[in-house]
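Write out the bound-state structure for zinc ion.
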Amino acid sequence: MRRYGKNPDEDDIRVRPNRKGNRPRTHIRPKHEDASDGMVLTVDRGRLTVLVDDRIVMAMKARELGRKAAVVGDRVSLVGDLSGKKDTLARIVRISPRTSVLRRTADDDDPYERVVVANADQLAIVTALADPEPRTRLIDRCIVAAYDGGLTPLLVLTKSDLASADKILETYSTLDMPYVVTSREEFTDGAELARVHEVLDGKITAFVGHSGVGKTTLVNALVPEEQRRSTGHVNAVTGRGRHTTVSALALPLAGCGGWVVDTPGVRSFGLHHVDPSRVILAFPDLVPGTEGCPRACSHDEADCALDAWVAEGHADPQRLYSLRRLLATRERREDD
Ligand SMILES: Nc1nc2c(ncn2[C@@H]2O[C@H](COP(=O)(O)OP(=O)(O)OP(=O)(O)O)[C@@H](O)[C@H]2O)c(=O)[nH]1
Ligand SMILES: [Zn+2]
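---
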């Protein structure tokens, strides 16, 4: 299982060096062998809802977890009252290692990187084909965040009644990404929804998308009726230039084992934390060409060995172009 370090939210609890030679405190504490496992569905200021078997349990983090935060999608172990009854509160005593992490970087008033969603299999990048116009740089940023965190990017192109998907699909053809093209009218048609379910069923998919792209409309067509949200929020509610609170929400897909994790806004997907060596892993055809690169090569510099390697015909030059375009998005401002 891959682990992603660096982030205070993710680090395992460290046991302090024990100068006095007595047993470390963590060993004296009960080991919670009776703990039950669950998945975090929502987080709201320290209060979490966790799915345990088929019950929704309210919980908070046990103090022994220290700074480590549980986020939506985390697999956790809990003790205490797991009945799910009103006014009960369980304690989260363990957070399992994550298989993937969707991170956002810091905005101005928040200097830390945060994990937004843990353990998602894929990142659905929801983009309207028109109204609002597709923004490829924003799509690129999301793709990089996905590659960096170990999620498979998935293009979800909405409002196909308004414009054709050909141009966007052409732009991303060298990345070999899965995609679906949808429109609201077609959701009433069983075949259209079946196609969307095909790419989502049995998986945990985090959804990101700029406001107004039709994310809520789409998510509502996929989740059970009682979980639906109202659509058509006016952007002015949050006010331009302000960041909405980052708190994701896991919703079950109707009729299958999968989950949709809805995330508010992508404005805050800063990419300063991204490591080029993780992004290139998404280009396995180019990886052998990096053997001649200088140490810690950004793969976007004069000494990079990839230019010569591609020129020798080992890989498609378009693939190198795509890699460089993605790597360059790290340096740009989000609203660029
Ligand atoms: N023409 C067309 N309009 C759509 C489609 N899907 C959604 N819309 C409209 O686009 C607007 C935004 O839809 P939402 O689903 O609220 O979009 P959102 O991405 O959740 O936006 P926020 O709620 O602002 O985050 C609404 O007025 C919808 O009715 C579609 O397939 N075609
Ligand atoms: Zn290089």
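---
The longest helix spans residues 136-149.
Residues 290, 293, 297, 299, 304-306 surround zinc ion (ligand 2) (CB under 6 Å).
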